[in-house]
Amino acid sequence: MANVKKSRAIPSKVVKLKRSAEAKSKIMQMYRNHASRLQARAVQPIEVNQTTTVIGTDDTWFNAAVIPQDPAWVAVPGANYVWNARDLGSQTAIISNTFRITRRINSARLLLSVDNYAAVFINGRAVVFDQPQNTPSFFNPGRTFNIGGFLRRGSNDIVIIAFNFGAPRSPANPAGVAASLTIRLR
Questions:
Q1: Strands 143-146, 125-129: parallel, antiparallel or unpaired by DSSP?
Q2: Total structural domains in the chain?
Q3: What is the distance between the alpha carbons of residues 130 and 117, in angstroms, rounded to a whole number?
Q4: CA 35, CA 119: separation in Å to the nearest integer?
Q5: What pLDDT, in 10s, does the model give residues 154-178?
Q6: Domain range enclosing 160
Q7: Residue 4 lies in a domain
Q8: Structural domain contains residue 92
Q9: What contacts 50, CB < 8 A, 6 or more positions away?
Q10: Cα–Cα distances in Å, from 53 out to 63, 73, 88, 125?
């Protein structure tokens, strides 16, 4: 982390909270509520029909507003940092997108950078389910996940629930999430 610029996003010490069954249940309920709103939304899904397609977070995602990138956050190619479009000061952001895959998948990965922690669902299955914490490695350098097994031909959806640790998003307590899906087709 030698190349990380100083920022209020860098905590003085890492804190992890225990994740209770009640907290997990609440996150799953948040996902189900958002997924039902996503399904009710009449929008044309992104067509994934090129050999390589990158789908990055931006203001075209449902409930997402582009925010300035904090100096401590890693740049995520093809994506912008976003937060809750309804309330930029919220402690939680729930964003989503729908896309359609037209051919067989060769490989797929998700690059995720989140300040502070997140739950990510693809087609209703949990890809990431972080415990509450303020770990700088989650946003610099970020994390990469193999998501090929979560995708299918046809319609796909991704829902990201991002959390700011301990307080609402503010200049003194920044929060943001950037995600980039890279899908390679056969």
A1: unpaired
A2: 1
A3: 6
A4: 13
A5: 999 999 999 998 899 999 999 999 9
A6: 20-185
A7: no
A8: yes
A9: 185
A10: 22, 24, 29, 22
